[in-house]
Design a protein that fits this description.
By secondary structure, the protein is mostly helical. It has five helices and no strands. The longest helix is centred in the first third of the chain and has 30 residues.
């Protein structure tokens, strides 16, 4: 039931045989990345609240959770900007894609995908 609802939400905006524009593909990629970082952020917060702060690991858990939270917010903002065809979202996506190229193999694939669709974004 939930899977069909999510599929409906994803396909609702692209009805018919229309091809999805490049900025939409970039926006959806950033949205998926924000969801991944958001899940990581929640997991780290749950670890933090469940086990508390110890001297050895407390600082690392707090840093990792805020880092993932910042990445979550960044990708969410870029996704909204790309959906509205903002130029700053295009250039920010290019910068993030170049940084992601370092993360072999998954980051490289996502980086190439973003660079390809940022290049064809009109």
């Amino acid at each position: 039931m939930q899977l069909t609802f999510v599929f409906f939400l994803v396909t609702e905006q692209n009805k018919g045989n229309e091809k999805m524009e490049s900025h939409e593909k970039v926006a959806r990629t950033h949205l998926m990345l924000s969801l991944i970082y958001g899940v990581g952020f929640i997991i780290y917060l749950l670890i933090f609240f469940r086990y508390g702060v110890s001297v050895e690991r407390g600082g690392l858990i707090i840093f990792a959770s805020f880092f993932l939270g910042a990445l979550f917010a960044l990708h969410l903002i870029i996704s909204k900007g790309a959906r509205n065809k903002k130029e700053w979202a295009k250039y920010t996506s290019i910068i993030i894609a170049v940084i992601m190229l370092i993360g072999f193999p998954i980051g490289t694939i996502i980086g190439i995908y973003l660079l390809h669709y940022c290049r064809s974004w009109t």
